[in-house]
Amino acid sequence: MAIPSHSFRDVQKQIKPFISSQAVISLTKGIEAKTFHFMSDIIREELPQVPYGVLSGPNLAKEIMAGQPAGTVIASQSELVRYAVQQALHSALFRVFGSDDVHGVELGGALKNIYAVAMGMAAAYKVGENTKSMILTRALAEMSRFAVKLGANPLTFLGLSGVGDLFATCNSPLSRNYQVGFALGSGKTLEQATRELGQTAEGINTIVQVRSRSEELGVYMPITSALYDVIFEGAPPLSIALSLMKNGHRSDVEFVLPHNEV
């Protein structure tokens, strides 16, 4: 299923009468508004007897359609589902890796959309490579902090569905979220940017959901918070960069050196 997250539950209900022995695989990279449910959570709620998995990774559609080599990740608790998807999709130009960290893979796919918006803004401001590198690596730190709080394995973020998808989405003008960020950084409103894009940019909804959830959980996410302030509170885009330069000394790599020992 490759549909926007806001329609995912309704479609599950519609297809329920037609599902018997099939497995359901989600390709949606997003989080349900208000409930903060992942697509796998919705599948379990609406189709409790159905085996399921999620497919995620650096998979820009135009590049795949152009026949360029790519890889993706199928995450499922079911070895049978993982194997079936690998067998069905593997080809000379497309490799499918396996994982059992369903929520970790989903979080990688959803959270990277936030930082693609930030990188689009950065590109509009023509920031240097040093700044882009800092945004990208601190984004990965934010993602892993948040994911661990929700029970995911931080090592998942070192793979294709984590840093792989983050790198591809944050560096590609083909990304819808990057395009929205670039438009916002160029002075356009969110309404103008969304209308011109003519497609869903999951990152905007994800910024709202993750900011709220991170505050509830007490997770430090300065880039996400700054993006929210820029998009919804009228703060200057420069505040995203400034958010990375404050709040004292922190360790470089999450879970290696505790921040209180820096």
Automatic annotation (TrEMBL):
Q: Could you tell me the gene encoding this protein?
A: gpsA_29
Q: Where is each Glycerol-3-phosphate dehydrogenase NAD-dependent C-terminal domain found? A: 101-239
Q: PANTHER family under this entry?
A: GLYCEROL-3-PHOSPHATE DEHYDROGENASE, GLYCEROL-3-PHOSPHATE DEHYDROGENASE [NAD(+)] 2, CHLOROPLASTIC
Span of domain Glycerol-3-phosphate dehydrogenase NAD-dependent N-terminal: 1-79
What does UniProt list as this organism's lineage? unclassified sequences, metagenomes, ecological metagenomes
Q: Does the keyword Nucleus apply?
A: no
UniProt lists the family membership as follows: Belongs to the NAD-dependent glycerol-3-phosphate dehydrogenase family.
**Alphabetic keyword roster:** NAD, Oxidoreductase
First-level EC class: oxidoreductase
| One GO-annotated biological process of the protein | glycerophospholipid biosynthetic process
The protein's Enzyme Commission number:
1.1.1.94
Query: Which SUPFAM superfamilies does the protein's record reference?
Result: 6-phosphogluconate dehydrogenase C-terminal domain-like (SSF48179), NAD(P)-binding Rossmann-fold domains (SSF51735)
Q: Name one GO molecular function term.
A: NAD binding
Name-wise, this protein is: Glycerol-3-phosphate dehydrogenase [NAD(P)+]
Q: Which GO cellular component terms are attached?
A: cytosol
